[in-house]
Amino acid sequence: MRILVTGSAGHLGEALARVLTGDGHEIVGLDVLESARTSVVGSIIDRDCVREAVIGADAILHAATLHKPHVGSHARQDFVDTNVTGTLNLLEEAVAAGVSRFVFTSSTSAFGGALTPPPGAPAAWITEDVAHVARNIYGATKTAAEDLCELFHRDHGLSCLILRTSRFFPEADDRDEIRGAYDDANLKVNELLYRRVDLEDAVDAHRLALERAPQIGFGRYIISATTPFTRDDRAELRADAPAVVRRLFPHYEGVYGPRGWKMFGSIERVYVNERARTELGWTPRYDFAHALRSLEAGEEQRSPLAIAVGAKGYHAVSTGPYTVR
Is the pTM value of this prediction over 0.70? Predict the structure, then answer.
């Protein structure tokens, strides 16, 4: 297939272009930044640029976005222009060009305020059926773009699948207090329990979505490492997360101790990927158990693809630990 990948200079966009090229597909990379995987340098806000990039495409993987770190450095209108109008441009040109399938990379941030239960409440159990509560302009524009995808499926028959990905970025956390309290690798391994996905697993989910979109038609899916927790763990997770992890992984403290690592005292939400595993046939490999095994063996817990793509920073950001490009 000829596949347009937007955001081809970014973490996920580059990874998608690398893997899909290896699969034998013809990739057109579109990004505002030049890169080895970008063949069209331009913005999804520019309708003429989008129209040119879409010519001859069989499918679109739309990963370009303004991200959460941009909230501190960009105006709300910038988010509307890129995340909403840019997506609309792609959808309209996809229909005009006869594109058969459209996969939109959304974010678990789209759930917004629903991710934070009130004090004393159990951890939130987050499935695709949880209603979003707008918390910032990033999440608000991602849900608006999702709704456009649903509209174009209904009105034009365009097969559209939405993947709400959890954290896969390699950069440090944007919260000063968290960066100061945890080693970076410790933080990311902890997050595999409930709110992180390895880049290679995220790419596999997109490949499956691309393959199955015509049969499914429309769907939203949470893309996060498979949690070991159950709904019955929610109250204890909020009150004493180490006790739950100790019960499920009795040896984890023996792995953590020599490294000076620690578990979070409380976990406030859990992302559930059951629908993606069932309907897409997705089988993520890089979960918390895999990370423990790798650490015990003295091996790298991240996937080879995540290591190869590496850290990129975020374009035009001067927020927290992120770089300016």
Answer: yes
